Every structure is written in C-alpha cells, then in structure tokens.
Give the backbone structure.
Amino acid sequence: MVMEIIIAAFLVIGGVFGLVGNYGLIKLDHPMARLHAPTKATTLGVGGVLIASMIYSFAFEAEGSLHELLITLFLFITAPITANFISKAYLHRHAHEETLPEPNGDTNWAVLERPEWSPEPEKTQEG
Amino acid sequence: MSLFLIAALPFIGALLPGLMIQAGRNTCSTWTGIISLSALIGLLVHAPAVLRGEVITASVEWMPALGLNASFYLDGLGLLFGTLILGIGCLIILYARFYLSSKDPMGNFYTYLLLFQGAMVGIVLSDNILMLLVFWELTSLSSFLLIGYWKHLPEGRQGARMALTVTGMGGLGLIGGMLLLGHIAGTYELTELLEKRDLIQADPLYVPALLLILLGAFTKSAQFPFHFWLPRAMAAPTPVSAYLHSATMVKAGLFLMARLYPVMSGTTEWFWIVTLAGLITMVLGALIGIFQNDLKGLLAYSTVSHLGLITMLLGFSTEAAAIGAVFHIINHASFKASLFMTAGIVDHEAHTRDITRLGGLRHLMPITFVITAVASLSMAGIPPFNGFLSKEMMLEAAAHAQLGDNAWLIPALATLGALFSVAYSFRLLLHTWFGAERHDYPHHPHDPPFGMWLSPALLAVLVVLIGLFSQGLVGGIVQTTAASVLGNHAHPHVHLALWHGVTPALYMSGVAVLGGLVLLALYRPAHGLWHAVPRPDAKVIFDAIIDAATKLANWITDTLHDGKLTRYAAIFFLFTVLASWHAFSGGAGVTLPREPMQADIIPIIAWFALIAATGVTVYYHRHRLLALVVLGIIGVVVSLSFNYLSAPDLALTQLSVEVVTIVLLLLALNFLPEFTPKDSGNGRHVRDILIAVFVGGAVAALSYVIMLTDFAMPSIAEYHLAQSHDLAGGNNVVNVILVDFRGFDTFGEITVLGIAALIIYGVTEGLLGSKVRQKLLERKPNHPIAGDEHPMMMVVATRLLLPIALMVGVYIYLRGHNDPGGGFVAGLIVAIALLMQYMASGYDWADKRQRFPYHASIACGVMAAGITGIGAFFNNMPFLTSDFGYFQFPPLQKFELATAMGFDLGVFLAVVGAVMLTLESLSRLAYRRGDVPDEYPMDINPSRQPKNEDH
C-alpha cells in the first residue's frame, strides 16, 4: 500500500512536470525562453516516470530492473546536445552581433565566427 | 561418337582459333579444319546404322518441368544436313585460309564460323524443339557476326543488320509456333511429336502454329516476301556466302519444313501457302537473277530461286516431290557452294565481281573455268550433271500438280522458272568466261593457288559423279532422308537415273533450255525492258518500316517515360490498380470471415499522429527540410506500430533504417534548393489528387480486405513457427527465416545491397571529375554558413557513445538467433555509431581514422556468408544448410553455437559496408569551394588561451 502510494506520487510528479513542460512550450513566446520548458518534461517528467517504474519492478516483480537508469543516462547525454544545437541554430539565423552580450574571453560568438561564403579557396582554422 | 560430342565439338573448338592464330595462319586454319573434320567423322561413323533405318538418340534430362531436355537424335534427314554442314564446312575452312587477306583477323573469322557450325549442327540434331529454337537463334546471331565480318564496310554492317532483323523476326514467330505445336502435341520431343499428325492437324491451333512456323522458315530460307535480305548479305566475305547462303543457313528453313513435314504437310493451308510462296520465289528470284551484274548478286538471287523450288516441292506434299526436294538439297549445295567459291576466286584475282567488266577469262584461268562450267551447267539443268536430275524431278512433280482446279498454271510457271534459271546460268558462264579476252581488268587474273581451287574442284567432281552415278552414290541417303521427311513409317521408292524416257518433264526441260538461250540472246533488249519497268526497292521499304517502328517505339517511350517521376508514378499506380481491379472482379467476391480487433486508445493516438504527420508533409511538401522532419514522425509511428503488433525485429530494423534514411536525405537536401518551386497548374493538381486518393483508397481497401480474410491456402508461417527451434535451433523465427529457411534469398539480397552500394560509389566517383562536380563546387549556400561546425559537446558525446553503441551492436548481433535482433539490425546500429563520428567531427577527420575500406567490408560479408553456405557441403548437405549444437566450457554456462552465426556475420558486414559506402560517397560530393579539410576533431580548441582574462 505504501509502495503503491509512493509509485503513484512519482507518476503524478512526472505527469505534472510533463504537463508544465508542454504548457511552457506553448506559453513562452521567445525561442530561447522556450528552450527551458521541455527540459522540465525530459528531466523531471520522464525521470519521475522512470523512478516509478524502477520502484514498481523492485516491489512487485520477481526481478528488479535498472534499465531505467540507462534511459536516464541517454537522456542526460542527448538532451543538452539537442538544446545546444537548437540555440546555436537560433543564434546563427536570428541573432545579430550587436544585440548579443560580449563573448567571454573570445573575439566573437562561435556560430557567428565563420565569414560569409566566398568562392575563393580561403579559410583559416580557428582555435 | 556421341551426338552430344558432335554438337559440342564446334562450340568447344571455337575457342581454338583465337589461341592458334598466335602460331600462324596455317596452324589456325589446320586446327579449325581438324575440329570440323573430327565432328564430320564422328557423324559419318553413324552413317551405316542410319542408312539401315536406325535412329541414333542421346538424351539428358535438363529441365523436365519445362519440357526442356538436352536430347539429340540422328535420322536420315539429320545425317544429310549434318554431312552437308560439316563436310562443306571443312572445304570452306580450307578455302577461307587462302581467301582471307593477311589484314583480316583470321582467328575471329574461324571462331565465328565454328560457332555457326555448332549452332547448325545443333539444329539438325535436336530432338527437343525448345533446344532447336535456342540453336536457331544462335545461327541468326553467329551469322550476324559472319555477315558483318568486314566491319569497315557499311554494306556489310547494313546487310548484317537486315539479315538479323528479318531472321530474328522470323525466329520470334517460330518460337510462338513451336510452343503452340508443343502445346497441341503435349510433348516437346520431336520423336514423339512427329507421331501425332492427326491430333495436331485436327487442333484449332494448327493454323496459327503453321503460320508462325512458316514465318520462321520463310525468313530463314529467304522465301518471298522475305527474300530481300539474302542478296544484301552478300557483302559478307565469299566463304561466308558460300557456306551460309548456299549450303547451310538458308537451308535451315527448308530443314525445318522437312522436319515437321510428317505432321504439318498435306493440309490445304500447307499446300497453298508453301507451294505458292515457293513458286513465286522460284520464278521471281530467277527473273531478278538474270539482270544482276554482280556475280555474287546473281548467285544470291539464284539461291533464292532454288530455295523456292525446294519449298514448292515440299508444298506439293507428294512422295515424288519430297524425294525431289531432298535430292535437290544435295545437288544445290554442291553446285552452288562451288559457284560461290569460284566467284570469290574471280573477285580475288580480277579484283571485281562485276560481270560487265569481266569476260574472256577462260584462257586466263582455265582450272577455275572448268569448275565454273561444270557447276553452272548443273545449275542450268543440263545433262549429265546432277542439277539436271533433280530439275527433271521437279518438273515431273510440277506437271502433276494442280492449283485448285487449274492444271496448267504450276507446270507453266515451273517451266518459266527453269527457263530463267537456264538464262542466268548461261549468262554467268558466257558473259564472264567466254568472249574476247580483255585488257582492262582491274587486276590481271590468273588461276589461284592449289589450296584455293581444291574445294570448289572437289564439289565440281561431286556434281559430275552424282550426275552420272546418282543411284549408287546418293540413292541410299536420299531414300533414308525421304523416309524421315515423309515420316509415318513411309518406305519411299527412290529411283534416281539420268534417263526416264520421254516424259512431260523432258519436254518442259527442253523448252526451258531453248527458251533460256533465246532469252540470253535477246539480253540487251530484255535488259532495257527490265530497267524500264519500275520495281519496288526492298531496302527502301525495309528502311521505311524500320524507321516507322523506331519512331513508334520512341513515341511510346517518350510518352510513358518522359523523365517526370510524377508521370512514372501515375502510370505505374493506375495500371497496377486497374490490373488488380480486373483480377479482383474476376474473383469469387469478398467475404470477411474475421472479426476486426477492438481499438485501444494508444493505437488510436498513434494513428492520429500518423494521419496528422502525413497531412502536414503533404501541406508543407515544398518546404523540404520541414517535410523531412515530419517524415521522421511517420517513421517513428510505423516502428512503434510494429512493436505494438508483436514484431520487435521489424521495429528495431525500421527504427535504424529510419535514422540512416533521414541522414541520407539530409545529405541529398544539401544539394537541393530549400523550397520546391511550384511547377504544375491547378488542373494538374486536381488530377494528381484524384489519382492519389483513388490509389490510396484502393490500397486501403485491399489491406482491409486482406486483414479480415483467411488465407486462400494454408500459410507457411505455421511450419516456420513449429520447426524454427527443432530444425534451426533458434527461437527467433524472423531471424531463422532470414539466415536459414530462406538463407539463399538473404544471400542474394546482401549481394544486391553490396552491388548497389558499389554502383553508388562508382557513380559518385565518376561525378567527381565531371562538370556536375564543378557546379556543385560553385553552388552558393542558401544561408550564410555557421561557424563552429563541429561543436565540442557533440564531439565528446559521440566519442562517449561509440563504444556503447558498438557493444549494443555486438549484443544485438549475438542475441539475434533467439531474441529480437540479428546481423541486419546490428549492422545498421554499428553503421549509425560510425556515422555519428562523421557527423560530429567532419568527413575528413573521421575518414582519416577509418582504416578498413568499406568495399572490403562488403566483400568480406558476402564471402563470409558464401563460405558458411559452402561449409554445408562438408557436412554432406546442400548449400546453406545450417547446423547447430550446444556447448559448455566451464565456467561459462551452456550456450548454443550455430553456423547461421557465420552467415549472420556476413549479413552484418555487408550491411555496415553498404550503408557506410553509400553515405561516404554522397558526402564526398558535398564539398564546396572554400571548404578546408577538417584537421581537428573540433572547430574550437577547448584548451585555447582566451584573449582577455579580465572576466
């Protein structure tokens, strides 16, 4: 009974965060701000469900399961990279150098570093 | 000698001339001659038995289910033709040795000649009519090579093409006719088929079969209206003309008619078609022949005429006529081959074949003159030469033939044909060899070396001997051959003699000789008249027909395949749906015995997602990148539904394929504009929408019906499910089907996959040096290029994931036999793992660190699968039979090893290689001018020194 309550609590937590994340995705109007919302859904939302699943397997099934940890690991690896790429793409396509803050220690933002395309074979390797 | 060996010897021997030519022209021709001669001797060994009336057979079952057996038989007809083909072949080989100049590639010539010889021997010895068809087509092909032997002459090429077109068309008809015949008779073996005369002639398909078979025979034997190709084929070297166009190939049509005579002849249709075609050909060919100035042209039309004569005799369908036909085949071959060879000698010596430029050669070339005189007198039908005897028999048969109620037309026309024949024979003799010696020959002629005139001389001797001692020399073979032509166990009475007493034929012959000489005396006015009368030119008509056919073919192709993918798709789908509708409406109607399953909420959500994604793709299809992203949703939903419907293997595969496909399409999008331009009007849109909805609806309806219907036959799935563990030691039925039950299919598929990847590699490799490459290099990106192409986070993550992904690949591979997985999915997973490195760190950086070429991976995969399959031989099992066993090595638990793992390893390697090679090939094209090879794994060095540390 206690276990069931705990599992239900985690499921509800996960569900609430999933709902909040998706609501935020609709509610927030700036792309960079929007990046925040789904992170709730992928970390806390999915995480809650995974924890519930693990507890369920230990409490009610013959063998416990730790597969969910792997799912968490992969989420932790992929979610930041996805967010990183989305923000890079946004910066590249919509941001102007003047409106951006000074890059920390470098001459320019990395995505804006590249010169305009030119047909001449010229390029310097940065870094 | 076995009949197999006789038929195979020329084909095997065809390899020799190409090798022997290295040792010189004499060695080359000697070896070719030895091949022919041994086949001839092998054939003649059977002669005594055949002449006693026996039939020699040899048979091996080849594809019994199709009725195709490698069976040969030798009866009188086969012996006669075989002897002609091989015997005259030997003489031609000798003659060609001296005829071909040192510039001509002799090895090629003898190879083609032996190929042709083998095909001809195959025709006359075949017992199975399907095999006969194969040899028939081979003669068309090899004669094409021989006619076009002088590739530098346009007439040679055109003549070869025309001959191939006409005889090839006839061959097509013959295939149809023979299949009909075999269908009627219920057998494809001639020996059985020839016994079924009444059955065949009573069948309603008899007439179509007859027409088609005669089309084949008439085109091959140059019967009117297909006679025109033979004179054009005279552009061939003379040995070819002498061999193909007098003695052998053109007689293949006659052979066919004679072969099928027992079952086809005797009907009204046979009589009218064959007799009339033969009669017209005989008269027309002889008439045109008179006015030919080219020696070989004259002989060609004379051949046409004589072939017509034999055809007409076969058409009469009487015993005497058949005997005459057989006898004339021998006689015509002897005197015509000899005449062709002497014409070749004249051409060789005087450097012209134009009769108007020749004359008076008899003193300059006395030996050749004697040979020509004997042969041409025989051709004219002058006693005591052999041509006289068979012509008498022809006239005798014609005298008794009635065309409907008309009793005089055939005898009169036959006499007219004989008259023309006398005229052109004497024109050949008198205008070329008699008259005053001239001084304006292009080259001063004299008799050729011994080897060159030996062959025609031997034939001329035969002409005389057969004429004088016909009964003794050839009576037996004519008797046996006529018996096999007439069939039905006939015992024809053959009596060959010079003098038959005063008969109608003798009068007709006399009229013909006198009339012919008178016509020749009046040659000048006749020649003027001939040229004053307009005639259709066969070549012009032929070219017009070919042009029209080409135009039609082009029109059809251009209409159906105009390069627009939409049109291909529309035609393909509409045709498929209409054909399916046709099949469906002829069926038993629809009953739906199964109950539909209850729909859960989750599939319905997935279904909505699928529909919505499809709609979005259609709506946004001009925005290519967006459409591609939405396509990804469709792929995921499809994978999930596989999983939901208990097909985890398919789901795994679909998911991996989806990833690779999206990457591939992204690479392709790199070369395309961002937006698809709108290039069709509203009307076309409406049409396309209608087609799409119609076809989609049809497919949906079909799926619905199939899913609610029981199988028409018991499904093999039950067997697979039941036997998978017992027979193959695997619990994963899908994998067991792939690597074991249908392993041969999979073997073919990985081979095809590998070939496809290699072709993509080849095509892109070809593009690298082309103008297309230049265009790609200069292309302007749609947006300014972003910096930091290879961000650190991505690079580090993919490096971390690489070993994990590889381990997953190995795991999926190993568990494949019993659980979802297997070599195919594992290959895709490993390919994706490698692909991530390319994407993260750039093509150059990753490629430099990739030491094992993907081509080799494909090759290793196919070989691993093949070797595993071959391994079954050592187990005394057929190819790809797998074996398995359970092993235990302490401290490990008991585990299973199956040979299918080796096969699956092959699948794995081939998939990895094919996927990576394809993507690599496309990536190579993606360079733009200005791109610098990626030297470092990341664009921004994380250990760099920031410029201002003040933050």
In short: The interface with chain B takes residues 77-78, 80-81, 84-85, 88-89, 92-93, 104-107, 109-114, 116-123, 125-127 of chain A (CB under 8 Å).
